[in-house]
């Protein structure tokens, strides 16, 4: 089996995070940048945008999420929600993934025949970038998971960190040291998922 497939298989959702990284903050930042830059996008549009929150800014994000969710969550369920959010906050940082909607709109205007597809392709681009970063972090022995508290946190996130209005939040990736491995992963039967046609 190729090293690449092994890297894909090793990427898992790690929820037990710590704030000690096996590499420097600068190395992590460079790794994230390189993974995003190497990720393909339709028409080489490079719509992905990234904000890397470390330490206090990282903790602030999860305070925002908790405060936003509290009035929206049944009181009896909120302790479980708090515990989940605390596991993310225990990490070293969070990567905020965005898509630049101005670029998407410009492409829609320039290539009107494909206008309805550009938002779809933008979603695909952010997914590819998120996956590339996740695999790169895993390969560096850094745990991560992908969360989606957008759009309910969008407004406060934008106000807190002066995010451009044309950047659309698409995901949050808390990361840190791996305090406990992921559980076993189950796969559905290949016959239900794949077809080979000759």
From TrEMBL:
Residue stretches making up the Nitroreductase domain: 9-176
One Pfam family from the record: Nitroreductase
PANTHER family membership: FATTY ACID REPRESSION MUTANT PROTEIN 2-RELATED
Protein name listed in UniProt: Nitroreductase family protein
Lineage: Bacteria, Bacillati, Bacillota, Bacilli, Lactobacillales
């Amino acid at each position: 089996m190729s090293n690449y497939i092994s890297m894909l298989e090793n990427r898992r959702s790690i929820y037990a995070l710590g704030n000690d990284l096996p590499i420097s903050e600068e190395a992590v930042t460079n790794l994230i940048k390189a993974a995003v830059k190497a990720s393909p996008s339709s028409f080489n549009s490079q719509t992905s945008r990234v904000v890397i929150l470390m330490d206090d800014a990282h903790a602030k994000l999860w305070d925002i999420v908790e405060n936003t969710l509290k009035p929206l969550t049944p009181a009896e369920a909120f302790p479980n929600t708090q515990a989940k959010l605390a596991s993310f906050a225990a990490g070293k940082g969070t990567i905020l993934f965005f898509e630049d909607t101005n670029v998407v709109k410009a492409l829609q205007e320039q290539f009107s025949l494909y206008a309805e597809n550009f938002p779809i392709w933008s979603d695909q681009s952010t997914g590819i970038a998120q996956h590339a970063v996740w695999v790169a972090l895993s390969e560096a022995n850094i745990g991560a998971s992908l969360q989606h508290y957008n759009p309910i946190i969008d407004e406060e996130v934008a106000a807190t960190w002066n995010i451009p209005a044309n950047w659309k939040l698409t995901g949050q990736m808390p990361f840190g040291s791996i305090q406990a491995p992921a559980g076993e992963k189950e796969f559905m039967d290949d016959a239900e998922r794949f077809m080979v046609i000759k």
